[in-house]
Amino acid sequence: MIDHIRLSDDEKSVIILDQTRLPNGTEYLELSEPYEMYEAIRLLRVRGAPAIGIFAGFALYCLARKYESLPYPQFLKRLEEDAEYLKSSRPTAVNLPWAIKRMTSAAERQKSMDGMLEALRAEAQAILDEDIAMCKAISEHGLSLLKDGDGVLTHCNAGPLATSRYGTALGPLLLGRERGMNFRVFADETRPLLQGARLTAYELHKAGVDVTLICDNMASMVMKKGWVQFCFVGCDRVAANGDTANKIGTSGVAILARHYGIPFYVLGPSSTIDISCPCGEQIEIELREPGEIREKWYAEPMAPEGVKCYNPAFDVTDHSLISGIITEKGICRPPYTESLAALFV
């Protein structure tokens, strides 16, 4: 299991592996203040929908320790203020508000300060432990679709760095490799923040998986050549009808896969499914800074000064393009309004 989110020895801080430094540097950050935790999420130092949820759980536990001497009403007020602040850092992934709600609900159930910190510590640990189990189960279900030698295209990063262990979209590939299976993986670089180049290629190469990095606009070429048998992607929020928000560019991959007759699967834990959201049009899409397109990876700007930039972090893949949604409970098939709802019965 990758050690990328953990408590400090005194349990007053959360220690994270700074994903913005990969693959060229391995740097850990120790975070104890609300603004540091907010910034870590906002600047993608910790990223991946499940990982953000895990981080938020431990972050709120550490912040709660600062207020343990307060009377219960004041303690709860401070904790809920911090929770709302962290929740505002990124709007699209559902795991962040989901985990925060679990933590504040655990605090509210205590009714007093007796056993409060123990309850919050247990809830944060439960979020992590559940994700580890879910990732293993998702990996098993996804692996059941694959045979030795298959080619798989993935977009963005949905591996161990984005979760707890194995990952979601990368989980079947890593689990299969552990069992001696071989796959050919094509990793989209994933503009503009290059999560595929910096993180997915890093994780798969390190695990001994045959991975080829491609630019996003090369996906059609490798599909046309017959090198891709499946597309596996992660998800940040799945609506009740199966519409799926994932990293910008995912919907384009799904459209290409449909054209070439390639099955397109979404992999994620049930915590990423938002049954209260009827369809993708209701998912708020995060807009990020223009500089990520114009200048982030360059010695000097690669666009004219003052040119307008449109930089959505996510897009929504229509449910009609999705062959199946793989959760820890199995593979959901259309109609998703029925199969996804059944997960919560």
Write the layout of secondary structure elements.
Layout: E1 5-7, E2 14-17, E3 28-31, H1 34-42, H2 49-66, H3 72-87, H4 95-110, H5 116-143, E4 151-154, H6 171-178, E5 184-188, H7 195-206, E6 210-214, H8 219-224, E7 230-233, E8 237-239, E9 244-247, H9 250-260, E10 264-267, E11 273-274, H10 291-294, E12 314-317, E13 324-327, E14 330-332, H11 336-342
Parallel strand pairs: 4-5, 4-7, 5-6, 7-10, 8-11, 10-13
Antiparallel strand pairs: 1-2, 2-3, 8-9, 9-12, 13-14
Describe what you observe in this structure.
By secondary structure, this protein is α/β, with parallel strands linked by helices. The chain folds into 2 domains: 5-134, Four Helix Bundle (Hemerythrin (Met), subunit A) (Up-down Bundle); 145-342, Rossmann fold (3-Layer(aba) Sandwich), CATH 3.40.50. The protein contains 11 helices and 14 strands. The protein has helices at 34-42, 49-66, 72-87, 95-110, 116-143, 171-178, 195-206, 219-224, 250-260, 291-294, 336-342, and strands at residues 5-7, 14-17, 28-31, 151-154, 184-188, 210-214, 230-233, 237-239, 244-247, 264-267, 273-274, 314-317, 324-327, 330-332. It has a 7-stranded mixed sheet. It has a 4-stranded mixed sheet with strand order 11-8-9-12, with helices on one face. A hairpin with a 2-residue loop joins β13 (324-327) and β14. α2 packs parallel to α4 (95-110). The longest helix has 28 residues, at 116-143. It is globular, with a radius of gyration of 20 Å. The model has no long low-confidence stretch (mean pLDDT 96).
